[in-house]
Amino acid sequence: MDKYIELSIPSGAKIPTVKAYAGLLLPSEIQDDYCRMNQYGCVASENDDALLVVQTDDIHFSLLPGPEFSPRLYRGQPAFYEACVPSLFRHPMTQIKYVTNLLKKYEFYKLMAGHPMIGYLQNWCIDGKYFKIDMEGLSAHYEFATPMIDVSRSKDVAMFFALCEKNQYNEYEPIIDESREIVLYTIDLKTLLENSNARFHIIGFQALPRPDAQKAYSVMVDYMENFSALPFVSYERFGINRKQSETYFELFEGGTKLFPNDIVDEMALQIKTSKEIDREVLEVCFEKQLIPKAWASASDLGKFLNAFGYVVAEKQLAFSEEERKEIVEKWNNNPPLYGDRVKCRFVSEPRKFGETYT
Questions:
Q1: ∠ at Cα 284 (283, 288), nearest 5°?
Q2: Which of 13, 66, 295, 313 has its CA 20 to 30 A from that of 77?
Q3: Structural domain boundaries of the chain?
C-alpha cells in the first residue's frame, strides 16, 4: 500500500469543489438515477462503483459514490416515525445515556487513530488537497450515537433497509408481514448542496468498508429538529410486499454485502457494550468541552458515571501489531482502490487579470 493513485491534472485545471459538483447534477425531473449524460453533455463512467474526487474544504478532498449525476439521495426505514431524529437525540434521552454515548463515540475515535489505513489515506494528496477522514461518519456507520442521519446514493440500498430488519439474533431478515408500512425518504441533493452545505457530509469511501458498501452520505440534524420536515426531504409510505422484501434480501445476500466482515466490527461492539469508560478519553472530552459542562471537574463526572454502574479505567483502545498486519494484508490482497475506479471531472482554474493559458 505504499503507492497512491495519482491523477494527471490538466494545465489550468483543478479538482471540483462541492459547489461545482452540484452544478453538474441533473434536474430533479430526470427520474433515471443512472442517466450517463447530464444536461451539459458530460458523460459518466460506466463503472457503477466509480468514486468521484471532490474538494470538500480548503485542504481536503473526498471520494463520492456515484451515480455521478443523480440529484437524489435516499433513506429507507422499516417503520415511519412522526419525529425522525438522529440516534444521539432519540428517546429516552437521559443525561447518563447522552454522556456515555458521546464518550463511547470518542473512544472509537481513539481506537481508530491507530488504524493503519487511516494513517495511509490521510497522507494521500491530490492537487494539493488531502484525503478527508470522516470520523463522525465512520462512527455513525458503526452504530455509535451521532447527530447524523445516514442516507445513501443508492435507492436499492435504501430499499434494503426499508424492507429488511434485524431479528432477535441481530441478523437481517426480509419483512414478510404485509400489514406493515415502511417509508422511503428522498433527499433533494441539488437543493441540499446549494442551500444547506453545512448539513451535508460526504462519507463515501473510507478506511473501513461499510460506508463504501452502502454508498454512504449523511445529513446533520440538530436537536429538536425533525429530518422528515426538512425542506429538501420528502417521503413515501407504502405497504410491505413480501416478494419485494425477499428480492432485496437476496440482492444484498442477507445484508452481508452491506456489512463486509471487518476486524473493527467486534472491537466497536465491545466499546458500545462495555461498562468501562476510558480515563484519557473522559479527561480530554471534559477539557475540550466535547461533552456538556454540567460537572465542576472530570473527577466529578467520574463519580456521576460510577453512580450508574460505569467504571473509569485505563482501557486498551489500540490495535495489536498482529491486528495491524492483518488489516494491511487484507487491504493489499484485495485493494478497494484502483485506477479505473477513482475518477475526477476537472474544472478550469479561474484566470487572473491579463493571464492566458496555452
A1: 120
A2: 66
A3: 28-322
Identify whether the C-beta of residue 215 lies closer than 8 Å to the C-beta of residue 67: no
* Cα 273 from Cα 297, distance rounded (Å): 25
Q: Is the pTM value of this prediction over 0.85? A: yes
CA distance 101 to 81: 22
Residue-wise pLDDT tens digits, 341-351: 999 999 986 54
- CA–chain centroid gap for 26, Å, is 23
Identify the segments of the chain with pLDDT beneath 50. Answer: 351-358
Q: Cell match 478532498: residue? A: 61
Q: How far apart are CA 308 and CA 146, in angstroms?
A: 22
CA distance 308 to 167: 29
Residue in 25, 15, 5 with CA at minimum distance from that of residue 192: 25
Question: Distance between CA atoms of 157 and 216, rounded to whole angstroms?
Answer: 10
Nearest-angstrom CA–CA distance, 60 and 132: 5
